[in-house]
Specification:
Helix 4 runs parallel beside helix 5. The chain has one domain: Rossmann fold, CATH 3.40.50. Strands 3-2-1-4-5-6-7 form a seven-stranded parallel beta sheet, sandwiched between helices. By secondary structure, the chain is α/β, with parallel strands linked by helices. The radius of gyration is 17 Å and the shape is globular. It binds NADP nicotinamide-adenine-dinucleotide phosphate. The site of NADP nicotinamide-adenine-dinucleotide phosphate has 30 residues, from helix 1, strand 2 and helix 4.
Length: 241
Amino acid sequence: MPSKELSDAIAVVTGGGRGIGRAIAAKLSTLDATVIITGRDERRLQQVANELGVNGRRVHAMRCDVADRGSAEEFGERLRRDYGRVNVLVNNAGIGGPGGLFLHQLDPEDWDAIFNTNLRGVYYMLRAVVPLMIATGAGHIINISSLAGKNPLPRGAAYSASKWGLNGLSYGVAEELRDHNIRVSVVCPGSVDTDFSPRRQGKDTSRMLKAEDVAHAVEVLVTQAPQSFMSEILLRPTQKP
Ligand SMILES: NC(=O)c1ccc[n+]([C@@H]2O[C@H](COP(=O)([O-])OP(=O)(O)OC[C@H]3O[C@@H](n4cnc5c(N)ncnc54)[C@H](OP(=O)(O)O)[C@@H]3O)[C@@H](O)[C@H]2O)c1
């Protein structure tokens, strides 16, 4: 893969229909990758693919529920059939669950939804995509975690635990795949100004990170020189919002 841009790359962005995922998809498409955005809301995905796919940029929409094993396996099969390879996988899809609850108040169904999306979903996507990358002999996998995966998050303990888990998964898989020339990196942003973040209420949103800041971190990772492996980026706002 050329080190400066991605003209021959196939890139998958989970949760690419809005927020951070959309900004990452936009960034990768400007680097000339063919970008496949996934999510559950097919109509929104198609609309975003149309909006981003201008000026010769290639953005394709494909439905995939990362928390659903069958959906993820079907998606992997479609990738293999339609594209034959994947060079960049950004595991961005994630949910926060109901905010403001102590862990003992959290409904077990919400616990399952958080872990099935944020952690099991990444595992399913790796199962779908890593064999294609190994066959190609190279790849970038970027897992969008959170500073909540580095720090305690009272009233968000399940979300925080899912991201601590995602970090641990990423470090282990990074070592598993290094010999295949596949770099697995984690990006841990603080609060980003998207619909995801109820905590932005009462905050100075002009100081908050923007989705484009996370996309920039992804750009830095995918444009590294071949011998360089930046394994983790912690992303904070310059001033506390
Ligand atoms: N915003 C923040 O403050 C912040 C800070 C640190 C880290 N993060 C992380 O950044 C990532 C993106 O956050 P965001 O702020 O962009 O959130 P967002 O605006 O709520 O977007 C979440 C995305 O995930 C997708 N998604 C959710 N469940 C899915 C599933 N089961 N299968 C496939 N796609 C699914 C959604 O698409 P559909 O609804 O179409 O499925 C949507 O595109 C998350 O992993 C989040 O934990 C966010």
